[in-house]
Design a protein that fits this description.
Two copies of one chain form a homodimer. Chain A is α/β, with parallel strands linked by helices and 310 residues long. Chain A folds into two domains: 3-155 and 200-302, Ribonuclease Z/Hydroxyacylglutathione hydrolase-like (Metallo-beta-lactamase, Chain A, 4-Layer Sandwich), CATH 3.60.15.10; 159-198, no CATH class. Chain A contains ten helices and 18 strands. Chain A has a seven-stranded mixed β-sheet. Chain A is globular and about 70 Å long. Chain A starts with a strand and ends in an 8-residue tail after the last strand. The A-B interface holds A 13-17, 20-21, 39-40, 42-43, 46-47, 63-66, 69-70, 72-73, 76-77, 80-81, 94, 98, 101-102, 105-107 and B 13-17, 20-21, 39-40, 42-43, 46-47, 63-66, 69-70, 72-73, 76-77, 80-81, 94, 98, 101-102, 105-107.
């Protein structure tokens, strides 16, 4: 079962001819979650041959144009394509106030419903949950209210080891309890721990998207052990002061968060258009955290299945 | 002195990975006029190495998203680039009502003024005039109020033939009058026509942009003799009924307008995304009007200087 992130846009506010503003697609077992939606996202979806119809949830980190100016175009196109399923938009409360009049005017005949979900970007809160993922808001520090998103895979209930069913002659009721996390108490009072009774298909995988933010020294601790971290890296060491002033991070700072969090892999992006190449970003990040990659347009970062406890 | 049109986007509502929604740039002696502004226009401007700062006037044919969803991104980018000169937007009156709240929210610190000019798309009216061009609205017939734009080059006052100045011993006052179109009355009552006294640098060149419209049989007569005509051609003969139903034209109908108007060249665009290739469009248009070209992304159509009357 796939768990992957496709980069649709990697640049900061000023797009170049090659790099688009922020947008990413998370694919969890062929359920698609769009994260930010900069101008040109729908063209990038096409370029990457991603089926628009599989997107039911869009998460907007903050209301700066380079993270959402592709929304109207995408929604309009989904309408022309005859979409019927509800589309869920998670964003700051102001998005609905601003975009509802545009939807009413430009997409009057939309054959589906756009459902706005107001999120509080200042809190760590579960903002969405379905059978594939749980999404938590990650408060960040930018010039305006901004949050990232932590996606944690949901893998369903574990199976009971066949040998245990036979050995302990488990009833249906006991099996249900054990699947839901209970230990087993034997007649002689011995406790068999849940982990000894079950087989998980794999451990839940996780991805955190940390959109525009200044360096937050405590962030790594809160994102401990996630598999894949995207952290913005608008600037290099040379513009450290500018980063702080504008509410952004350097590549090195992104790597410091990744190192502290002991993530499986770090992706950096949201590059300032003053840089034609991204070599400097990568070099400076890798000095701190070697497992760093560049969020290049069209790059796909897949998290492999992690065997569970058998 | 250049008079050219660069195609930035040629597709209809659903962009493909190769063809963007409608946007064009008219260059008149290095003064740039943007015509429609579909999503991705700013990326296309960069791709074509066009200097954003030279755009002072934007003309929006109608308020369908594929003709304007690139506006906010472009304006936002112009702000980040530090633009200071006013930016003039010509469009249906609803544009200001819809976009002012977005400008106030997303571009609060814009270092320049966005000046909205409400146009009446139902009238042939001069909507803008400067020292380079005169722009006239061209009423079209689409599903919503829509107009095209006729750009007519202004070439300044003509020069007086040197030989005439000597022969008729013209005073400064007489020269000014003749430059402004007056004939010359000699002492014996003879009239020397203005055209015999002056030298024009060249004849004014013209470009008409006919955005989304169903076929208007009388349109060609009204655009008689223009040099370059863009006429939408969303469909081919096979979808003639669909064209009528959706307020669009076929390639053949676009060519019929061009033929009637006896234009120098026809450009067709706004292609339905059902067509991967544009061969069929070109073939059917050229059967009626051979001087037809496809509005391909990045194509530049230049109108050569036409010698005046010497």
């Amino acid at each position: 079962m796939v768990f992957s992130v496709t980069i649709l846009g990697s640049n900061s506010a000023l797009p170049t001819s090659e790099r688009y503003p922020t947008a990413q697609l998370l694919n969890v077992a062929e359920r698609f979650y769009l994260i930010d939606c900069g101008e040109g996202t729908q063209m990038q979806l096409r370029r990457n041959k991603i089926k628009f119809t599989k997107i039911n949830h869009i998460f907007i980190s903050h209301l700066h144009g380079d993270h959402l100016f592709g929304l109207m175009g995408l929604i309009s196109t989904l309408g022309l394509m005859g979409r019927q399923a509800d589309l869920h938009l998670f964003a700051h409360v102001d998005l609905e106030r601003l975009y509802r009049p545009h939807l009413d005017y430009f997409c009057a005949d939309l054959p589906f419903k756009v459902v706005f979900h107001a999120i509080d970007p200042h809190q760590w809160l579960i903002i969405h949950e379905d059978d594939k993922v749980m999404v938590t808001s990650v408060p960040l520090r930018h010039r305006i209210a901004t949050c990232g998103f932590l996606f944690t895979e949901k893998i369903g209930l574990p199976n009971i080891r066949k040998s245990c069913i036979e050995q302990y002659e488990l009833s249906i009721a006991e099996i249900v309890k054990i699947k839901n996390g209970a230990d087993l108490r034997l007649d002689d009072g011995t406790i068999v721990p849940n982990d000894d009774l079950i087989v998980r298909s794999h451990l839940p995988r996780s991805y955190a998207f940390c959109s525009d933010t200044k360096y937050i020294p405590s962030l790594g601790e809160k994102l401990k052990g996630i598999d894949l971290l995207y952290h913005e890296a608008t600037f290099t060491d040379a513009e450290k002061d500018l980063a702080k002033k504008t509410g952004h991070s350097t590549a090195r700072q992104a790597a410091m968060v990744a190192k502290q969090a002991e993530v499986g892999k770090l992706i950096i992006g949201h590059f300032s258009s003053r840089y034609k190449q991204t070599d400097v970003y990568l070099e400076q990040a890798r000095e701190v955290f070697p497992l760093t990659e560049i969020a290049g347009e069209g790059c796909v970062f897949e998290v492999a299945v992690k065997p569970g406890i058998f």
